[in-house]
Amino acid sequence: MGVAAGVALGVARHRAGGPKPAEVVAVVVDKGEVTLDVATTGTVRPATTRQLSFAVNGTIESVAVRAGTKVAAGQELAAVDSAEAASEANEAQSGLDAAQERLAAAENQAAAVTAAATACATAGRPVAPASPAACVTRGYPGTGSDPILDARKAVNRAARAVDQARAALEGTVITAPIAGTVVSVAGGVGDNVTAGKTVVTLADTYDMQVATDFPEADAGSLAAGQTATITLADHDDALTGKVVQVDPVGTPDGTLVRYGAVIAFADPPRDLLVGQSAQVAVRVGAARDVLRVPSTAVHDISGGSGTVLVRAGDRSTARTVTVGLRGDRYTAVTAGLTSGEQVVRSW
């Protein structure tokens, strides 16, 4: 017999004109699950929001999206005039080509010097002072310089300049780094924009979460990984979620200290709206297959003990019991009662 099945006992016969006695309702102590949830409200928001900007100053040439547009990863969103950036990229590439040619010339000269010196040494003849090949095998007399090293440094500098110029050219176009929904667009065709200033805000609406906060009394029992139930006004069925973040520092709201938490949807619906409200209940405690009674049946809880009224026939007797998890509907009893006994449901 389950706890939910109440048995009305001790109902005295009502006498005409006299006060009607109170009904005593007893329930059977049984085994089952005891759960504890903490509840609050929250707001649906994207898991990720990207602030997108151009890498160069310029004039906007095109804007392909507006607020609410759903985009795919890699899709072009906006562009500025790229003529100047393209010219600088070409100049940087020409500089790199010239530096590479100078390096090749320096390496060829070094090879020629080495070959001449080797030939002289093999022939056993003195090296002619007037011959460049006879002076040194690397560098120039008395200068300590190294033409090959200098040329390689120049190539490295030119290569970095090419990378920067190409990045600037690529930065004349904003593309979507992720699939999602455009939240806002700041600027239109013909507007001048500054490098680094946000033009498009993109939200990952395919991975939504609920931002919530809990009062201090409830926040202490929260932990990442706990399951949650999310209820939305426009969905008939409750949705399953999981706690993914609990703020370590609270924020006073004038009367209470509240701690933020983030709840992720296990399987987010595709029609979620950014900013819509949600009811959230997080399961912070659970005990299965334990002896339980309605929480209203246990009074005077202190130090892990409480008092119940055990019902036998038409008599109720107070008894001290040891309690475990005190849940939303039921309280676990670890000692003092046996399965099948009856207790007064509320008193």
TrEMBL record:
Record Pfam families: BSH_RND, CzcB_C
Domain spans labelled Multidrug resistance protein MdtA-like barrel-sandwich hybrid: 56-200
UniProt domain CzcB-like C-terminal circularly permuted SH3-like: residue ranges: 292-344
InterPro entries (UniProt xref): CzcB_C, MdtA-like_BSH, RND_pump_MFP
Entry GO CC: efflux pump complex
GO molecular function, one term: efflux transmembrane transporter activity
Coiled coil: 82-116
Keyword Coiled coil: yes
Annotated keywords: Coiled coil
NCBIfam families assigned: RND_mfp
Record-stated family: Belongs to the membrane fusion protein (MFP) (TC 8.A.1) family.
Protein name: HlyD family secretion protein
Gene source species: Actinoplanes siamensis
